[in-house]
Structure formats: C-alpha cells, structure tokens
Amino acid sequence: MAENDGALRPTESKWKIPVSIFFKDARSVFKMDSLGLEILRIAIPAALALAADPVASLIDTVFIGHIGAVELAAVGVSIAIFNQASKITIYPLVSITTSFVAEEETVGKMGAAGSQNDVNQHQETSNTQVEDDALGKLEEGSATRTINTDHNNLVVSQKTKILEMSNPDKVKGGGLGGKRHIPSASTALVLGLFLGLCQTIFLVFGAKMLLGIMGVKHDSPMLKPALKYLTLRSFGAPAVLLSLAMQGVFRGFKDTKTPLYATVAADLSNIILDAVLIFACRLGVSGAAIAHVLSQYLMSFILLWRLMREVYLLPPSLKQLQFGRFLKNGFYLFTRVIAVTFCVTLAASLAARLGATPMAAFQICLQVWLASSLLADGLAVAGQAILASSFAENNYMKATAAATRVLQMGFVLGLGLAVAVGLGLQFGGGIFSPNPAVLHLISIAVPFVAGTQPINSLSFVFDGVNFGASDFAYSAYSMVLVAIASVASLFFLYKSYGFIGIWIALSIYMALRTFAGIWRMGTGTGPWRFLRSGFLS
Length: 537
What we know:
Helix content: over 70%
Strand content: under 5%
Shape: globular
Number of domains: 2
Oligomer: single chain
Number of strands: 0
Largest sheet: none
C-alpha cells in the first residue's frame, strides 16, 4: 500500500490516549503547504463574512449609543432576544447543511471521476475495436469518413450510457461542468424559509412577554424603545434565516468568497441606512431596525441569485429532500444551541436587571467579545468543510492534519486577539458611549473580554472540527453539561459580585466548552477512535 494514501498503520501503542495529537507538527502551524493554503482560502473570506455582521452591529451600537444610554440598553436586550431566537432556529440548519453539502459534493466528484475513468477505459477498448473494424472496411474499400463517423458515434454513445448509469443527476443537470442537483441545498432553503416565517410570527406576538422575561418590566424606560426595535427587526427573520442557510450551502462547496461579497454589500447598505434613518429621518431605534431588515433582504437576494446559477433549487423529486436526515441531526444541534445561547442570554438578562447603565456597558463588551472571537469561526468553517470531505473519502490522515492545524492556528489567533481587544477597549471605549459610568464598567470588564480570547478561539474551532466529523450527538450532550455548570456559576457569581460576577461566569463557560472539545479528540473517542491505532505522518 502506498505511503501517502492516508491509510492507518497500527503501532505498538494501540490503546495510548492520543492527547499529544494537538501538538503534532506545531512548528508548521503557518506553513504554506497545500493544506495551509486550502485552510486560508476558505477561512479568510469566511472570517471576514462572519465578523462583518458583528462589526455592523458594533456600528449600530455606536449610532444608538449617541442617542442615549436607555436606547442603547433597550436595543441590547432586543438584540439578545433576536439572536437567541435566530440561533435556535438557524444554527443547527447551517451547521448540518455545510457538512451534508460537503459530503454530497465530494461523493459527486468521486463518482464523476470514476465515471470519467470508465469512459476513458471504454474509449481505449472502443478505439481498438473500431480500428480492427476499420481495417476490414478499408480492405472492402470503405471510406475513411465512415470509420471516423462510426468511431465518434460509438464513443459518444458509450460515454453517455456510462454517465447515466453512474450519476444520472449530472447528465440531467447539464453535464459535469453545469448546474447540479444537491438535495441538501434544496432541503436547507425550504427549512430556512419556513423557520424564518415561524420566527417572525413568534417574535411579533411575543415581544412584550419576551422582554419581560429578560427583565424589562412594564414601568422600565427601556420597554418602549425595546419593543419598537424588536417588533420591526422581527420582519427580517425570513431573510436572515434564508441567507444563513444559503451561506451553509456555499461553505459546503468550500466557497466562502460569495457569502463575503453578499455580507459586505448588505452591511455597507446597513451603515448608510443607519445614518439616514436614525439621524436624517429622526426615526431613532426604529430607523436602526428598518435599516437592518432592508440590508438582510438585500443579502438574501444576492445569495439566491448566485446560488441559482450553480444548483437546481428544485430537486427532480420531492423524495430526494432529506427532511428526515436533517431533523434527526438537527435535534442534536437544536439541543446544543439552546444550551450555548441560553448562557449568554441569561447573562444579558442578569445585566439588564442591574439597570440601564450596566446593561449598556455589558452590551458594548458583549459585541466586542463576539465580534473578535468570531474571527476564529472562519477557521471553524474551513475545518468543518475539509474534515467533512476527508471523512467522506475515508482519508483519516488528512482529517487529522486539518483538525490539528486549524486548532493550532486558532490558538495563535486568540493570543493576537487578546492583545488587540485589550488595547482597543482600554483606550477606545469612548467611541461607543460618552457616559463616564458606562466607560468605567467597560474598563472593569476588559481583563475578561480580552483574556478569554484564546479559549474562545479554541472553542469555536472545536465546534467546526466536531461538525466536520459529524459528531453532532457528542456536541449536544457535552454542551448540556457545560450549560448546567455555567448557569449555576452565573447565578452564584451574579448574586455575589454583580456585573463583574457575570463576566467571571462567562469566562468559566468558555473554558468548559473548550475542555469538552479537547476531551473528545484528545481521548480518541467517537469518530476519532482511529487515533488510538496510530498512523504514519
């Protein structure tokens, strides 16, 4: 067997716990080999696209912060509710779509390559047969034109027959170079649109109740602007979920540039509309919500137009829609995302109970925390797409190399983010609010917002690694345990230390998430069982 075929090689240390795998080839973390270039080609546009939306939210925060602290706190609570609802519905869908589309794309390419090999082999056989026939015909005085015609007809006929047998969708879809049927893509769009409409209805009719749960009572000055912002922004839910579902499809194709272009176009329009609607039209928080909704529909239109050029959105048969497969794995990630977002939402709720000033400071810190940490999610997207393809090919060597490389790159990125975020918040907090009390609370939270960046980065990258290995069940069960411990620490530390206690608890929450990822791969369990057998690098 060839040494570079990715095959596993048993060693004497068959049952050794492979925790050292995380340090494998650590000196080559920035090596620009084929794997490194593939990761960066996917990760950089993905990171920019993922960071663009939080950056736009930061700019929204800057605009709204200059209206007043009450409005800023109100919008912060509303965004927390909207994000919770969106993540519960779309995060499982996007994650599953990326893995499933990557698998289908890889299997399709392997099938097409196999078909082409069969065609070439059959063509060689046909050439020999036609040449033999040609000699006979020449002896009988047949024209060379007849031989060529017979040869071409035979090859085309055989090629079409082989392609139809091996991959009928490719032929029906316009050939190997044209549009193709990807059942997972069609399924994702149907589910995304349906869930978006459900989310709009739920948020519009339940806005006041949800704000009450978040600590915004009927006599709170935050209630009116928060209710106005949340209700208006809810009408953008179908566009948000549909656009994120399409981003999952493009990620599965390892195309992260298209979502980046669409996101940048939408966010630029959002910023322009913010300035016009908030200040020129004097619409306040309503203008911020309307600007965000319009920008999301623009993004959906761009992505849909581009996707229609690559994929048949209507499958040949409704039976090809994979609702069962999506729902089974979606249940795991649905459970997981509730656990993940509940901790952050609970933290925002507790901050709101402290008053408008602490909530305004918390909202600013949270947006910076998420915007910077999500840069690492670009590596998670790259890891997920590459691992899903590698597992589909049974190439465990590449899967392991990709997983360790993105984790090492994520940790280094986190160290850089810690420095950048710490300096940025310490000296640039005045950009977000002129209120001295808000700025004082921000300075207190800086060590936690900046210091957790390395573990945040690792946590996000581990998500991509687990999803790429289709380890959805473990991701769900482990996160439930993490959430239970984190919620307990939130309540205890909030009562004991107030605002600073919330940030201590969030730091514990991210550390536990990272530990859960290290445990799975580091012990060689689940889809990583092959690591216990060892392999040649």
